[in-house]
């Protein structure tokens, strides 16, 4: 709990969604518990928090109001139409404030996506939590606040301000990925309808639907099985089994094409939290591809690629360390950022690495970057790979000539990269959030135009050259003094929890920088949450990339449950002689 009572700043933004057109104020919510969820719809950690909040909204529905504060990272996310689509796509059933200019972000001193701020019934900010994995701690805090304010007579229960928006009735609803079946039909993950749809070869008519269409995780026949926002699809060499990345369920599911039967292949339904996990939990698998005689899984939730062996059911890490950034080299010791699209051809595995806006590939055990410059640089620029820019690509499709098509999602474009010439070009544009590209056996190219709820066929041979704009994520930078700086990650266990040292140190801190020259000292991994850094006075600005985690367990109970709190920060900094020599970050800010 905060020791000082701080009045919650008033709501300010461009507009509201899910309120029926009503503009909300803090006075409207007086007497209710309010949780502000600062999110941006590109961010997988933010999507995890949406899922964590759903049971809390149900449990505390008459006392709690959750308000999503959408503070965008990418330029595309500033588009109010795109935001409205994302609210429907991800099943957001609470009011959302469009914080397009990051005003609320600054007023509530947010430094990371996601951040939760708790406002009590009297209008005071009583807690702030960065990152995901706070559901249990937040539940205990809400229980305490409800007891306190019921006793004081300041709690007001009743219906909340949420008003559901209406959705059009279309054949597909925010489809994600597509593959071609041996029959020539197309199989599409119909993500917002929580099902898999088989379409005719032209993509225009429904043959059958696998799944009830309601969010769930039931195995069984096609008309009783259920998924939760499925994405990637992969046909196994048997020609009969399709592996489905059941993203929000954190599972791999198998579909028998002959019977329509659905079964769980891998995962527990629990989200992977740490290297000490049970070894079988997954985290937001977003795409799957057959490569090197096994299924490779784009594990978007933890910035890695995993492998899955269908014969044994075993899984393991293929590439990535869970650090969210861009670093090439021999796998697995590489860095990725929310890999979301895979396509294998020959000896290459192409990867759409969405949060670095990068096209990458693995060949002969090494990860390479064809185009992409880091977590905060993006745009729509053609040309040589090192100069070309994309914006949050989600899909890739390899071509027989060795080149690759990219679903450049937030640019609304399909791009083509030719490794023979190291050139990026634009094939088509003006699309509504394309999320995948399929090259059929006949050579046709289908694009999943997710924002338009359809598949479209590209005209052959069309290439456009774009010299578009370069963008960079603009967030208020933190001034820091050159030379020695102390990084302090402040962590307070949730109510009823204590640090867990059963298996060694309970905390872990990883620090890096972009550009690397920004840090003269302090890069690397350690167990202390405080770190001496030395900033290079010759580098005027950059990004400090910080990953912190803390293990806790329930205190004073016989069968204590274990918990892991983790957060990734990309902190923009300017090196300023008048700046402070300390950078505090809140891992779980129940006391600050």
Description:
The chain has 592 residues and is mainly beta. It has 4 domains: 1-167, 3-Layer(aba) Sandwich (Glutaredoxin); 178-275 and 285-312, Neuraminidase (6 Propeller); 320-473, 6 Propeller (Neuraminidase); 477-591. 8% of the residues lie in helices and 41% in strands. The strands form 10 sheets. A 7-stranded mixed β-sheet has the order 1-7-6-3-4-5-2. Strands 35, 37, 38, 40, 42 and 43 form a 6-stranded mixed β-sheet that branches. The N and C termini lie close together (7 Å).
Our count of domains comes out at 4
Q: Give me the number of helical elements.
A: 4
- What is the count of β-strands? 44
| Full CATH superfamily name of the largest domain | Glutaredoxin
Under CATH at level 1, the class of the largest domain stands as Alpha Beta
**How far apart are the termini?**
7 Å
Rough outline: globular
Low-confidence stretches: none
Write the layout of secondary structure elements.
Blueprint: E1 6-7, E2 15-17, E3 33-39, H1 44-59, E4 64-70, H2 80-89, E5 96-98, H3 103-107, E6 115-119, E7 124-130, H4 135-152, E8 175-180, E9 186-190, E10 195-199, E11 206-210, E12 233-235, E13 241-246, E14 251-256, E15 262-266, E16 285-291, E17 294-299, E18 304-308, E19 315-319, E20 329-330, E21 339-345, E22 348-353, E23 358-363, E24 366-371, E25 377-381, E26 383-384, E27 395-398, E28 404-408, E29 413-418, E30 423-428, E31 434-439, E32 445-449, E33 454-457, E34 467-472, E35 478-480, E36 483-491, E37 497-499, E38 507-514, E39 519-521, E40 524-526, E41 530-535, E42 541-554, E43 562-575, E44 582-588
Parallel strand pairs: 3-4, 4-5, 35-43, 36-44
Antiparallel strand pairs: 1-7, 2-5, 3-6, 6-7, 8-9, 9-10, 10-11, 12-13, 13-14, 14-15, 16-17, 17-18, 18-19, 20-24, 21-22, 22-23, 23-24, 25-34, 26-30, 27-28, 28-29, 29-30, 31-32, 32-33, 36-41, 37-42, 38-40, 38-42, 39-41, 42-43
